[in-house]
Amino acid sequence: MDKFVESIGQDKLLHAGGCYVISATTASIVYNITENRKKAFIYGVLSSVVVGGIKEIYDIKHGDSNWADMGANVVGGTLGAFTVTVRF
Fold first, then answer.
1. For residues 55 and 44, what is the distance between their CA atoms, to the nearest angstrom?
2. What Cα–Cα distance (Å) separates residue 80 from each residue in 16, 73, 85?
3. What is d(CA 42, CA 69) in angstroms, rounded to the nearest whole number?
4. What's the whole-model pTM score?
5. CB under 8 Å to 55, separation ≥6 — which residues?
6. Is-contact 40 27, C-beta < 8 A?
7. DSSP per-residue string spanning 72-85
8. Do 27 and 41 form a contact (C-beta atoms < 8 A)?
9. How far apart are CA 47 and CA 26, in angstroms?
């Protein structure tokens, strides 16, 4: 597992994990209100991308902002929304 974390980078995994939680939570709330899976998926992904984007804008002056972090945000957000809205 250490090699996996090393190859991707702990920072990217934290971005993906954080956006996963944001997206899954948002998608779950939207689905419970609307009972529309498509809308829940879209709002879930968008919420994580917006929050991740705001964090990256903040990092321009206060940290290390890069596009790979946004990629991790999108991946985590997509997986989070997908997990909530897919039918098993």
1. 17
2. 9, 10, 9
3. 20
4. 0.88
5. none
6. yes
7. HHHHHHHHHHHHHH
8. yes
9. 7
- pLDDT tens-digit series, residues 38-70: 999 999 999 999 999 999 999 999 988 889 999
Tell me how far apart the alpha carbons of residues 38 and 48 are, in angstroms, rounded to a whole number.
Answer: 16
Tokens of 35: 């009972």
Please report which confidence band the pLDDT of residue 5 belongs to, taking 50, 70 and 90 as the band edges. low
* Whole-angstrom distance, CA of residue 16 vs CA of residue 9: 11
Q: Rounded to whole angstroms, how far apart are CA atoms 52 and 47?
A: 8
Under the banding of pLDDT at 50, 70 and 90, the label for residue 1 is low
Helix ranges (H only) for the chain are 2-8, 10-34, 37-62, 67-85
Rounded CA-CA distance 10/30 in Å is 30
